[in-house]
Amino acid sequence: YLHNFLACNRGLEVADAVCESQSRSTYENAVLTKKALEASHPRSVMLVTSWFHSRRALAVFRNVWPEVAFGVHPVYAGATFTARFRIYEMGYIFSEYVKTLWYMVRYGIA
Questions:
Q1: For residue 31, what pLDDT is reported?
Q2: Pair 47, 61: CB distance under 8 Å
Q3: Residue 32 and residue 52: Cα distance in Å, rounded?
Q4: Containing H/E element for 94?
Q5: Would you place residue 83 in the very low, low, confident or very high pLDDT band (cuts 50, 70, 90)?
Q6: Distance, CA of 51 to CA of 78 (rounded, Å)
Q7: Which helix (H) or strand (E) holds 63?
Q8: What is the DSSP letter of 88?
């Protein structure tokens, strides 16, 4: 499972980066991250995740924690489109469409 890395409030400093690694889904990741960061009262959080997962991750985090301004920094495999779009990512890309539909039905997140 690919987890989202987060950077909170003060810019992207290594000391501010958080990785939640107990979750088994993006929704759980958002819920557990909220619990872990609530005490610090962040105003904004930057999600760092794979390019094909970034849209759904952003929607889920905004839904779970609407009081925080979320942004997303998608990560690519390479510098050019052909380098970014690896054949092994096809399964992940397809599964994102399936998962997006599931999240619309299960959580009402589009």
A1: 95
A2: yes
A3: 22
A4: helix 90-106
A5: low
A6: 11
A7: helix 54-64
A8: G
Q: Is 95 helix (H, G, I), strand (E, B) or coil?
A: helix
pLDDT at site 22: 87
In eight-state DSSP terms, residue 68 is S
**Six-digit token pair at 24?**
């088994």
Tokens of 47: 């999600």
Instruction: Kindly report whether the global pTM for this prediction surpasses the value 0.90.
Output: no
Burial class (CB in 10 A: 0-12, 13-18, 19+), 90: exposed
C-alpha pair distances (Å), 24 with each of 1, 28, 50, 56: 7, 6, 16, 15
Q: How many residues are recorded in the chain?
A: 110
C-alpha to C-alpha distance for 33 and 19, rounded to whole angstroms: 8
